[in-house]
């Protein structure tokens, strides 16, 4: 029977001094942040204000259920179109930004950097920029979600391509297959389950994100929520929040059902 020292891989251990020093720095930064953000104020007043608004939300108002429902539908339409357009573009960029499928190191570096740039810029910033470019409304929100989808899916699609087993691709290479043939015949089929999972997670993510974009004028239910809060109609805001919750839950359940059917 093998000894325990050979049964488990040796763990990488940081020097205890470095760990203690890092914890000390993080603790000091925590207290500095509390002071800098003035978070140490009277939390009793904050809790009282939250409770007052919360009590005014119930019972929810159904007076504007029709317009709110239309805005909610527009919100999901933005998310759906963003995925339908963004996922195929993400797939092309993923092939170009994966180490084992990119045709040239320069193309790999450029596409990888481009996808990283799209992913690291928050959606609200893209929405504000696009509103300046194309105007207020759902068009700016839809393009924002296309960009968000490319940034999210492009990265994880590329990682899925890089993690596939090399044996099928090597076998096709030995048979004289071309690079496009290898990608279509071995790489993409092997990574397809990961592609589907990522696309479904992105649909859930963009559905939640689309509900916020209206706050900056990019269409959807967010504008309704902002107007309700600014005009102190908290009962209408409660209705909107409940409807957004139901929409997100339905999308998540639908994506979970798709996963169960396929996998």
Features:
263 residues; mainly alpha
Let me know the largest β-sheet.
Answer: none
C-alpha termini separation: 38 Å
Overall pLDDT, averaged? 86
Going by CATH, the architecture of the domain at 82-262 would be: Orthogonal Bundle
Structural class by secondary-structure content: mainly alpha
Percentage of residues in strands: under 5%
Q: Can you identify the CATH class of the domain at 82-262?
A: Mainly Alpha
Order of secondary-structure elements: HHHHHHHHHHH
Query: CATH superfamily assignment of the domain at 82-262?
Result: MetI-like
By CATH, the topology of the domain at 82-262 is MetI-like fold
Low-pLDDT segments, ≥5 res: 1-10
Number of helices: 11
Form type: globular
How many strands appear in the DSSP assignment? 0
Helix content: over 70%
Radius of gyration: 24 Å
Condensed summary:
By secondary structure, the protein is mainly alpha-helical. It has helices at residues 4-7, 16-36, 43-56, 65-96, 105-120, 123-134, 138-162, 167-174, 179-213, 222-230, 234-262.
How would you characterize this protein structure?
The chain has a domain at 82-262: MetI-like fold. By secondary structure, it is mainly α. The longest helix has 35 residues, at 179-213. The model is unreliable at 1-10 (pLDDT under 50). The radius of gyration is 24 Å and the shape is globular. Helix 4 packs across helix 11. It is built from eleven helices and no strands.
């Amino acid at each position: 029977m093998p000894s325990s020292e050979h049964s488990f891989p040796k763990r990488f251990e940081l020097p205890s001094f470095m760990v203690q020093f890092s914890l000390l720095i993080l603790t000091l930064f925590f207290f500095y942040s509390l002071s800098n953000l003035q978070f140490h104020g009277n939390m009793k007043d904050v809790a009282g204000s939250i409770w007052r608004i919360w009590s005014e939300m119930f019972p929810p108002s159904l007076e504007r259920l029709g317009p709110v429902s239309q805005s909610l539908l527009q919100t999901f339409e933005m998310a759906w179109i963003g995925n339908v357009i963004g996922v195929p573009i993400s797939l092309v960029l993923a092939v170009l930004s994966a180490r084992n499928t990119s045709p040239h190191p320069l193309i790999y570096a450029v596409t990888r950097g481009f996808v990283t740039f799209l992913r690291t810029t928050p959606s609200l910033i893209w929405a504000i920029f696009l509103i300046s470019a194309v105007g207020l409304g759902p068009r700016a929100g839809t393009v924002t979600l296309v960009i968000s989808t490319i940034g999210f899916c492009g990265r994880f699609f590329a990682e899925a391509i890089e993690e596939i087993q090399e044996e099928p691709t090597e076998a096709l290479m030995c048979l004289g297959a071309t690079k496009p043939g290898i990608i279509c015949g071995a790489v993409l089929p092997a990574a397809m389950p990961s592609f589907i999972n990522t696309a479904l997670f992105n649909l859930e993510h963009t559905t939640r994100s689309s509900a916020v974009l209206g706050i900056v004028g990019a269409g959807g239910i967010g504008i309704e929520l902002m107007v309700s809060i600014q005009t102190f109609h908290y009962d209408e805001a409660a209705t909107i929040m409940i409807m957004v919750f139901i929409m997100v839950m339905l999308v998540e359940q639908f994506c979970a059902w798709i996963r169960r059917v396929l996998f």
